[in-house]
Amino acid sequence: MAGPGSAAVSGAGTPVAGPTGRDLFAEGLLEFLRPAVQQLDSHVHAVRESQVELREQIDNLATELCRINEDQKVALDLDPYVKKLLNARRRVVLVNNILQNAQERLRRLNHSVAKETARRRAMLDSGIYPPGSPSK
């Protein structure tokens, strides 16, 4: 009987193609993490959409405040509020950029993991083992 991480051997003493314990663990771990990564990605996407909407609302409100300020006969000093809104908009844009970069890194990582998983499956299916693999 083959131990964990080693290839099974047929009655004739030749290696039988099969996943190693390490490969099984890696594949299981990837399958375990995949739903969490997908859920995180969907949440980041939803936050980015809401931040775009928030930025648009801030822009609309700042425009409206400027228009009201110009139309008022009584001098109201709305400039500090407009500046606060523009500062809040700048922060929203900054956070959105950070989220976009994180989501892109997550997408690239997910792509790399899927590519590596497919490569390993193809090697296992064809019976070709990577250099240094205990399955040789």
UniProtKB/TrEMBL annotation:
Gene Ontology annotations for the cellular component aspect, listed alphabetically: acrosomal vesicle; axon cytoplasm; BLOC-1 complex; BORC complex; cytosol; manchette; microvesicle; perinuclear region of cytoplasm
Entries under InterPro entries matching the protein: Snapin, Snapin/Pallidin/Snn1
Superkingdom of the organism of origin: Eukaryota
Subcellular locations according to the entry: Cytoplasmic vesicle, Secretory vesicle, Synaptic vesicle membrane
Coiled coil (residue ranges): 85-119
A Pfam family hit: Snapin_Pallidin
BP-aspect Gene Ontology terms: anterograde synaptic vesicle transport; autophagosome maturation; endosome to lysosome transport; intracellular protein transport; late endosome to lysosome transport; lysosomal lumen acidification; lysosome localization; lysosome organization
Keywords, sorted A to Z: Coiled coil, Cytoplasm, Cytoplasmic vesicle, Membrane, Synapse
GO molecular function, one term: SNARE binding
Family assignment from sequence similarity: Belongs to the SNAPIN family.
Function: Component of the BLOC-1 complex, a complex that is required for normal biogenesis of lysosome-related organelles (LRO), such as platelet dense granules and melanosomes. In concert with the AP-3 complex, the BLOC-1 complex is required to target membrane protein cargos into vesicles assembled at cell bodies for delivery into neurites and nerve terminals. The BLOC-1 complex, in association with SNARE proteins, is also proposed to be involved in neurite extension. Plays a role in intracellular vesicle trafficking and synaptic vesicle recycling.
The protein's name: SNARE-associated protein Snapin
Organism the protein comes from: Macaca mulatta
Lineage: Eukaryota, Metazoa, Chordata, Craniata, Vertebrata
